[in-house]
Amino acid sequence: MTDRMKILLAYDGSTCADAAIDDLVCAGLPKEAECEVIAVIENWLPPPSSLEIVAHIDRDQEYLALAASAAQRVRDLQPDWTVKAKVSAGSPASTIIEEADHWRPDLVVVGAHGRSALGRAFFGSVSQKVLHEANCSVRIAREPATDSNRPVRLLIGFDGSAGAKEVVRTITARHWPRGCEARVVYAAWPSLDSVMQPLIGKIADWIAEEELRNKKNVDGVVGDLGAAGIPATSVIKAEEPKRLLLSEAESWQADCIFVGARGLGTLARLRLGSVSSAVAARAHCSVEVVHAPKLR
Known about the structure:
This protein has helices at 15-23, 53-77, 92-103, 117-123, 126-133, 162-173, 201-227, 241-252, 266-272, 275-282; strands spanning 5-10, 33-42, 82-90, 107-111, 137-141, 153-157, 181-187, 232-237, 256-260, 286-290. The protein is an alpha/beta fold.
């Protein structure tokens, strides 16, 4: 692996893309890092005719200026970073994913929504596609709704899985501003329907054992965060995970929700759906979905 963290920032000139740049200072990122700002020229149509070439050249220059301007904003916020700008053409989400596969960043940062209604209407949310298909951690940034002078608040979804433990490792390895605090949220398993219990009694027993173990693990996570200089509290409730994470983030006014890319396994995903997708789509704040690092 490289010594410096690599960050791929997607930029399209939208308000959400600007918020993604501002959000970098709240992400606990290192003083020194490599950042590539990519602006994608949306290309849903066949190649242009000769009469359209001049217009496309103008558009290329526009997007290059857009990426260069965004790269300079990143340098202003993070003067010790190495920042470069890049322009590509194609479907925004697919192009971002292809660049991530090629450059292999540690983190991809995208705004929650882009500026193109056409792209959203026909190809769905760019941020959701990147979240599902990128092979690294993804941060979906939103403009903070609270006072920027207030200490950063991190909400951590924890379920005892390997993915959740990777979230904790990621957070404790970063460089957070003074006063940063965290809240660990564990959603206890809901009770199984009494009609189904005779059929899946052994599974119910296993779930109960896992629940007890994970509740004990929450105290360990709070201790690990405290040892890393991040004061932490915990919330344990018998509620659907995505609903609990969203409600706690809003009531506590969290700046970012951290969740693992993988949960407790197939059973959990079948019963509860994709927690990371739901949280990323509905949260009022930034959301970072953490993947385990891979060898380069």
